[in-house]
UniProtKB/TrEMBL annotation:
Domain spans labelled HTH araC/xylS-type: 212-310
Compositional bias annotation for Polar residues: 319-331
Top-level taxon: Bacteria
Protein's UniProt name: GlxA family transcriptional regulator
Amino acid sequence: MTLVHRIVVLAVDGVYPFELGIPSRVFGAADGRYEVLTCTVDGRPVRTNSDFSITVEHGPEVLRTADTVVVPPFVTTAVTREVPRAVVEALASAAPGTRLVSICTGAFVLAAAGLLDGRPATTHWVVADLFREWFPKVQLDPDVLFIDDGDVLTSAGAASGLDICLHIIRKDHGSEVANQVARMCIVPPWRDGGQAQYIQRPVPETTASGTATARQWALENLHEPMTLADLAKHSHMSLRTFARRFTDEAGMSPGRWLIQQRVDRARHLLETTDLPVDEIAGQVGFAGGTSLREHLHAAIGVSPLAYRRTFRGAPSANPPGTTTHTALRTQ
């Protein structure tokens, strides 16, 4: 009999209702594999950043029973260097080894509690400079959608809460389950690029053509060799114009985007097929198995064999003493 994984969401004052509901909505679509409870530090209602408060059924005592604790974000005007002592004590009540997850400004809570010192983490790009100033011991990377550092995971703002919850399901139960949950929630199983594509920047000239056609062509022909000139040709642009427009639209260079798509396709094939590594490399456009191994390791820090073992094997906790550091970033 499969044990149900308990997720406890800690709502703090000023919480964003949308992100507060993400864990329940996403994990709740995983066919009973997860139980999601919501609590506050004292069991009392908390204000949201909207014109209403929320009432919860649980106090901090349920944190002691959690397998995973999620800290959703709260309004940036409530962000302070010193998190209320009651919040820190509530987090400290979680059992050792409990997986900790933050969404957006929830990373401020984990950082203020000293739980991110010396570790990679991310938060919303808008507050990245403030976060770095207040918590210099944290290895902040504001360019990614989320970072998986084993038992501590952090994500960027708003919709990246969906990304990190789907990643956790994929990590716990594999790609097939995560993809089915994504379909139920009508969201993509994963998103390309990092926060760079959402950072405010000048709007490209409206007279310029987009690069979506070239990206779609590339995705349909990943197994074929392709150059920047090939991509530019499908957008009817010069090389210089195409490179600039592509970066504006995708948040990364064409070369980095293409590598990321090939790595993502390889990950999918490793999860869902028994094809040899060399054959997978050929299907996604890498020169050979060695090239695939190098790019996969650069992207997520593991070999194809280790990745396949993780996502094709029976779901289980990481063995003692192991840590996986994964970041969904621009590659």
